[in-house]
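Late entry, evening session. Most of the bench is empty. Finally got around to the prediction I had been postponing all week. Sequence below, unchanged from the version circulated by S.P.
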Amino acid sequence: MVTALTYFFSAGCVLAMRVPASDSAPDETAGARTVFGDLREGWGYVRRTRWLLASLLFGTVFVLLIIGPLEVLLPFAVRDQLGGGPSEFGLVLAAVGIGGALGALLISSRSLPRRYLTVMTLLWGVGSLPFAVLGFARELWLMMAGAAVVGVTSSAAMVIWGTLLQRRVPDHLRGRIASLDFFVSLLLMPLSMALAGPAGAVFGVTAVFFVAGIGPALISFLVVHFGRMPSDEIANPLDRVRRPAVSPA
């Protein structure tokens, strides 16, 4: 009920918005555009932009490795390793959420790091290492701590990613790139959840969580290298420090 009310509130905010009329002449070719043409243009930009392509491909693999264990196997880990039930499971999920809120606040309260592409990728990759803790923790506090760290790092990376979409993607392509981002994020999510159960039954829950924690960390270093992220972020700084002009003596 509360969720439904929030949707009505959001719809009211949209209806209350007043967008000023544009003085520019209408685009006569707009009607000739097709959805597939827009998608082709957006994908062409992604393919030409190395850091963006590398990030989206990494995001696909990250979702494949992480979502299934988190959504499917975590309740079994809480039950079998901690002897817990719904309350303990809820506390672990709450730790993810609290960590996510803290991570977003920490990264957004200061200037973005100079090595923003590298930091973002490693936050997702290396930041997933504590995920392996969920597969062997025998204490609730330890499992909550691992979940909280994953929440901090993944949320901080998401803030940087959202900033990049706003500041490094051209205005006329931003909607298409955002659509591709959502598509990539959801593409392998069902497959991840479908594979998590059988993988846990065959290899064990601990092994699956270990792969979910180690896998993204290893891949993230490859993504940084082959995406040429260090050279790209140096050539395209996001936060330039403006030095005051020195008046002639």
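Two things to note before I forget:
The two ends are 69 Å apart (CA to CA).
The chain is about 75% helix and 0% strand.
Will write this up properly tomorrow.
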